[in-house]
Amino acid sequence: MPHSPFRLTATEALGRIAAGDLTAREWTESCLDRIEALDREIRAFVHVDPAGARKAAAEVDAGRRKGPLAGAPFAAKDIIDTHDMPTAYGSEIYAGARPAADASPVAMARAAGAVLLGKTVTTEFANLTPGPTLNPLAIDRTPGGSSSGSAAAVAAGMVPLAYGTQTTQSTIRPASYCGVHGYCPTQGDFRLSGVREAAGSFDRLGLITRSIADIALLRDVLIRRRPRTFEACPEPPSIGFCRTQLWPTMDPTLQAELLRAAARLGEAGASVVEIELPAVFAILPDAHRTVSSFEFVRNFAFEIDRHWERISPQLRHGRIADGLATTYERYVAAGAAIAQARTQLPAVFEKIDLIMTASTLGEAPHGFKSTGSAAIGALFTPLGLPCITIPAFKGPTAMPMGLQALGPLGGDDALLAQAAWIEANL
Amino acid sequence: MPHSPFRLTATEALGRIAAGDLTAREWTESCLDRIEALDREIRAFVHVDPAGARKAAAEVDAGRRKGPLAGAPFAAKDIIDTHDMPTAYGSEIYAGARPAADASPVAMARAAGAVLLGKTVTTEFANLTPGPTLNPLAIDRTPGGSSSGSAAAVAAGMVPLAYGTQTTQSTIRPASYCGVHGYCPTQGDFRLSGVREAAGSFDRLGLITRSIADIALLRDVLIRRRPRTFEACPEPPSIGFCRTQLWPTMDPTLQAELLRAAARLGEAGASVVEIELPAVFAILPDAHRTVSSFEFVRNFAFEIDRHWERISPQLRHGRIADGLATTYERYVAAGAAIAQARTQLPAVFEKIDLIMTASTLGEAPHGFKSTGSAAIGALFTPLGLPCITIPAFKGPTAMPMGLQALGPLGGDDALLAQAAWIEANL
Fold it and tell me: Which of B80, B94, B104, B202 to mutate to test the interface with A (most CBs of A within 10 A)?
């Protein structure tokens, strides 16, 4: 038995359990110890359930709970319903609220044997107002948002697997800032029953882990497919390196790292070409904001109507004011513009397997007034592409920065295998 | 003041309130009386809240609650969350469960001044297993499903407005069987936060009323647009009359009525042409079933894993068995086939404003073992088109049968105005 099973990825630890070298109880205790040791400071969790976790782990060790994730500790962003833990959506309005059911992704992981340790901090209603979580790599910096606690918990070794969500950049950004892996599937690929809707046109579940193999495993569970052994793709992929219109706003160290990575991957055998996104994609950030804000104020009509004073001023004056001022005509036009942009996707991917770009504009910023820029998300998220961030680079102060890879719609399995090739060859 | 305000449409009664001829309290009391008188037998409601309704109505009369629906009684299918009434999703698993928030459509109607009287019967999880509701027009027949209670409540005069949902035919069918109006918007047009997801690729909110003007009013509230005065379109529409592949299975009286309606609308000035759906649409019913079942078992993973014995055998052996046997590959292929079919829609609507077809295969069937055939829904629902049923016809035993009109994606406003023209000219 290793002294610190919390350091293992889920795939590694599951292998040790299968080999008889680790028990679910030891793994869970190791993660609970880690939470106990660190989370008073980091504040990744809003709720931890040690008793429930120990009981579930004991059932795994007794052979009464089985499945491809049997014994794997995980955490869920507190925008995701749980029947046995409170779910507050990052708002005081719902302090202590207890849903009647587990959300689909929680239920599916548990049915596969996974052990839910607790609920992680989300920004208020998965929007911009930060929660109390610190970046475990530098406690004077934001962990990013809105899946702040999930990224911090995985980065700090409190859990190997955590769920986030993403409507703009809420999985890729915190994963990048915290130096872990983050992934969102092709839009619509994972079910969201019991996950509080922010903007249904864009909402996706996000997976946060410390390896691509763990993403692939959890993905198999969520689409209810027999897990396959994950392997990097044997052939080098065709990479479209995309600076995007945001290049001038990126940290120069990140620019240099991206260029160096492109060169290195080319030397390793990949075809790497610089691509420019179709001109029509320039409308995407504005269209994304229009659609998100319009849908947000309708989804949160109850809170706006009944609990106005308990919504943060930042949310009221930002997203909500924006949404209330957005007309239906503008909303419809923005949706149509996004649909039109998506028709260009087959051409974008005609000669490349994936787009390689930055995950964020740079390192996690200092301070906690904001969760950092979501600009790259606003550009790509409306397209619904599967995307992954790999903790590939170090910034000017040695904080992590992610390399983001995006595949064609429905190309999730290939994207993960190609991302693993990239990771192995950097 | 009329003696029976429960008989009025919402638009009519709101006009009388504006004119000082009716109070919200009188309107609500009239509907509550109607429920009291009839619902012991019809069983449209699973929960009624007279005290809450009286309080809300009194606030309207006192001028403290305003809005375009101020004082309008309504009901919500029990698949839709309410913070002050139980929400059981048609399942004993959730008997007495109380969500923390109102679903988006409930909150938006209430914010517009509407008065929620109660929750209406849904089939189990909005799937096939019938609830206890009888058809108010013939108590030995099904009201249709899954929005059984909402259609029955509106037909019986218990409320002028009710919410249903539709994943296959769950609004159009019960509205047709009960002789009222039913409408689903272009897919994605109304927000579904707090509405239990069955199959997110198809789920839509449905509106059930006794007039097209009421649908238009409620639609304006749900997209948060200043309500406009509703009028039938002044010009006769171009109608594509479509028998569909289901024609041979339709009641001969319905066939004759549809043909007569096509002729009459032509005489009234409409261009009426017979159209055939593209051959590729033949795959839609199978693809709809594949996608629905796959998504259903993932959305209900919690109930399947933890409450298996409390799920009805009909649901376990039907939708759930189907979903568990559906592979991800088949699901993805079905989704792609539907997307491919949708690319034909611009050609379908190139020369017509709307498709005119049947709402159901005939009158509401006798008995309560099933809620009737959803075959027409399985054909059209995957396309996401806005659709409306008008209680236009009488069947062989004088039960109502609907005429269904479907418009192009995003053409909701025009569709409602054209449907009103059709209704006026039949």
Answer: B104
